[in-house]
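Researcher: Batch entry, complex prediction.
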Amino acid sequence: MRAAVEVQAVEPVAPGRDWSLWMRQIRVILRIEVKKNFWGRRAILIYLLAAIPVFLTFLLTFVHPQGAADIRKNWTSAQTAFAMVIYRGLILQTIVYFGCAWIFMNLFRGEVVDKSLHYYFLCALRREVLVAGKYISGLVVSVVLFTMTTATSLFFLYYARGYPANVDYLFDGPGLKQCLTYIGITVLACVGYGAVFMVIGLFFRNPIIPALLAYGWEWVNFLLPPLLKKISIIHYLHSLSPIPVSEGPLATVVDPTPAWISVPSMIVFTSVVLILASIRIRRMEIRYGNE
Amino acid sequence: MNDQLIIFKDVSKFYGEILGVNRVNLTITPGITSLVGPNGSGKTTLMNLMTGLIQPTRGHISVLGISPSNPQELFRKVGYCGQFDSFPRGMTGYEFVKSFLSVHGLSRKEAEEKTWRAIERVDLIEAAHRKVGAYSKGMRQRIRLAQAIAHEPSVMILDEPLNGLDPMARAETIRLFRQLAQEGLHLIVSSHILHEVDKMSDRVVLINNGYILAEGGVLDVREEKLEEHPMQIMIRCDRAQEFAARVFASDSVVEASLHQDRQGVFIKTRNADAFYQLLNRVVVEDRINVESVSPVDDDLNAVYHYLIESNGGSS
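Model: Structure tokens for the complex:
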């Protein structure tokens, strides 16, 4: 019964690194992931979450009878209130935080729960490339979504002020720089939180608990002593705020970290976390039965 | 030579305290090799080890000279159709196969061509644009098979590939396996359907409780067990009683018993070749009319029974 067979010898493995192949693979993963995770019904919740600040600023400026008038009258206070309550409290520390948690933790954990991660593991694909592809897909979605949230919320804030005043403020004043800084901070938040949540999703079967613990740490950051304060993402994001905001009477006062340190620090931190994710995924085994 | 073989060298896998497989030394040559054993015997563990989905606790595995810890190289040569009956959300059969060919790094055109070729081979053309979630179990099995063969691997690892298939599809699939084996592929198949494994396999690996019990051609494995389990042969003939008495006198025959209808004799022998020579002699000398000679237990079923079920395994 044995067939007379001859197997072709294995082609020699090309030494070195095949960057063009990896880039191609990352693009394919990006396409698959965005389609799979962000075009379906499951994505509705994340869109609703991202819409909350937009809806609130819309209500404040269009529906609340005094809202727009107050903004016009007290522009400086309105800006401070926006920076403290809407941007920092709501957008950065709640919407971006939980949005990134949902998006990035699901990149791997969601596939383990769906029992479909092995399909990637059965491709001629370096697992590090998979980490990069998945991270970039999460980053693209979170950055698009949350920078739109930030920009639209700012739009409503500025809209209340009226056209001529805005043109002056944006193009002859500090307005444009402030807007771009807010958007930059949002991008940086997605970069940092994204990496952290992806690693949490890789290491923990129930990532909600570590995510909530990290959330608590970020929230009590203003109370922490100076050294511990710096062991957080939110400290570096706050340091970049275009409008200085008080952290309250109980806060430990620490000088903001300059941008030339904050931004590279976040990038280095993210790189370290992604290397950790790559090490983890190289050792990862498919054992859905244990999940 | 190692780049044509799949080699397990002293491989063990423990899941915490639980044994997956222990001290496996195995060399798999091209052709169809079937892994046979009851549930939980370690078949899927061996397959997952070969594909790097799990890592050995001890030992070394090489698939055509490539380590399973190097997926970038391994899966250019290997296709795996596992038992996981789950799929990425929202994909059609076509998208499922094509997207993973694209992840392999194929160009769009090449991926499309290979996708259609694979889907055609498993006869799913008409359902290709339907969502996999709406497929029947047999169709899901076939689309997984298409995904495993689409990139034209040299080694195919198939975990229970006949599960869920109707008899027609099963026959077609076995025919496809034979064709692939003739093309020079390694096919490593696990299955519970013993008579089909028996028909298609070049060699079998019997495994139970994480240990390899036997490996080789079915007949070779059967012969290894002759001492414990003499071969049974049924001979239908006239003058059965006389025939039984005549052959029982020979050393090669361990037992000879008359069939109930007295038209046949069950022979147990530890030396089948010697018995067949004796049979020829008796037929000629005693002018006995032999209607049929049929070995009763030289198939995989018997081997499985002797090696596994009689040792307490359950399928």
